[in-house]
Amino acid sequence: MAMTDFTIISRSLTSRWFSTVTTILTVAVAVALMIVLLSMRTAGQDAFQRGAGNMHMLVSAEDSALVAVLNSVFYASAPRRAIPWSKYLEISEGLRIPWEFAIPNQQGDSYRGFPVLATTEEFFTKFQPHPGQEWSFRDGRPFERPFEVVIGSEVAQGTALRLGDEIFLTHGIEDSRQRRIFGRTDETTMTPHVHDDYAYRVVGILERTGSPHDRALFTDLLSTWVIHAHDVRRAEDPSVRMTTEADLRDADRLITGIYLRVGTRPGRAMSAGQQQVYDMLRRDTTITVADPHFEIQRLFRIVSNIDQVFIGMAGVVLLSSGIAIMLALYNTMEQRRRQIAILRVLGCSRPRVFGLVLTESALIGLLGALAGVVFAFIGMIVVAELMKQTLGLVIEPRLEPVWTFVMVMASILLAALAGLIPAAAAYRTAVVAHLRPLG
Amino acid sequence: MTTPPALDIHELRFRYAGMPSTDPVVDIPSLKLDRAEQMLLNGRSGSGKSTLLYLIAGLMEPQGGQVLINGKNVHQLQGEKRDLFRGRTIGMIFQTFNLLQGFTALENVLAALMFSDLPPQHHRERATALLDSLGIDRPNQFVERLSIGQQQRVAVARAVACEPTLVLADEPTASLDPENADAAMDLILNACIETGAALLCTSHDPSLASRFGRCVDLSRLRVEPELDSTTLEMSTDRTRRDGGTTID
Q1: Which chain B residues touch A349 with a CB distance below 8 Å?
Q2: In terms of Cα–Cα distance, which of B116, B89, B64 is closest to B7?
């Protein structure tokens, strides 16, 4: 095989491997940072939209609408305030609003750190975790009777639970600091209280939805009311052995949220009367009404200010990586002048010498960008895991193809620009002066 | 049509910027080298021998005169054309070899062939054969790991790789001991004979004169328009005429 410009460039890079590798790493880190931040923007927004699904409104007793959405939809932490059942009946039936669904739910229990959502069967038949995407069971069926539980795909993966397994729920969320919602911890041990008088049986395992609901367990409201009422009754009278629906008092029938959807025409996502309903509900000061999609956008507006700062910083890092390339090449130019002079004697023209240095620089940019894509992918997996653990956001660790392409091209272009000064120095190399014997 | 000489110099004058025009470093009224002819250009250190070679190779610009190689005026060619012409027509050998460090012996020869008009698919074959004929048994060894003698052979192979019209050797034996210098000179002379290249070799060592068909003292060229070996007496008095300016 004949010698090519590429042979000369690759030799030049490998002969100074330490400088080459560190420069490539500098570019890679900058590119990875940019790709992760830019991809996360899109992925994050998408993930946030997934949780709220096809609901129009969320009713909660939380103080702020954003907190209500984060807690009731994203399981950030269990809601602290409860809504009495009578309020639910008033909203779902008393106001004569043509609801498509009004799904009550209650949070507060957990199983091995995974939150439990006590709700009704409508959660599976009417609520969609992502608009247009129905629930689908990998195994089993929805709960039909008390003390049956359905588990999300992440729970199945994390706990290895199978159909027919029996579990006991824990009061509060084990790894959350806010576990005192309706009840208390065991005073003596200060450990989370386990509702060990009532076992739940796993009857269904859900397919992955890419929403925060993947890491939740679902059961019926009645069972949840019973186990909590049982605790209260036992505290009052230790001889109580059993609690049934008949023992429930109004104070036991509590929920923490209502997922609402106003009836729409077929194929429409929104209803004309939605705003009116929203305004009407907001007049009730005992509840907080949130439009989850609006709240998510609002959150994103806040976050996007921050991530613009991050992206700006990543841009500065990228720019300094360009300077690093320029310095790496320029500093070696003194050692390379003899090589350049020899090539000139052999017939290499000044423009070709210029091109060699510029290509070498662009190649560092390309290699840095490719390494950056790999780093970004690893980074995305780490960030996605962190988001899942802390916010309950399920983010696909996927690099946005457009941003990845843009960043690879930008990195090559930046590197080529950084190579201009060293290339010009190479172009101007005085041949005769550098052919003379050393010393 | 007669074949033009390998090298034909007329009224070539060169001085460095800031030097008086009356005292040029190079001042050659006429010098001709036939095809495949081998000439030793003798002169003391600083007499402008290297400068003359760089002028011939088109790496420096003269103030006047012309250098024709193969009938082509080197200094009339501009930029890339001149570089390519040099790569294809002239081979250069240096005192310190000037090999590409970090490249193998084979790659050093291939680097010269990159700019030749030989089809790329024949480059490796040509380079390997050349190195083999010059006794390099480890063509894939990095040049800095080769002995001085072997580096010299690689430098010779590289100079003749493109089958040039003219080989310019600048003090090629100056850094070698007398025994190795003899062997190196043999190598250069034979390589040029085999490839049909004319050789213009500079040296400050008059003892090399006997190896060449023709010897010229650079200082004498300035007063006598054309000299050949029959009229040239290799004088040890190389300071007969002052006016040489140290350039190295």
Answers
A1: 79-80, 83-84
A2: B89
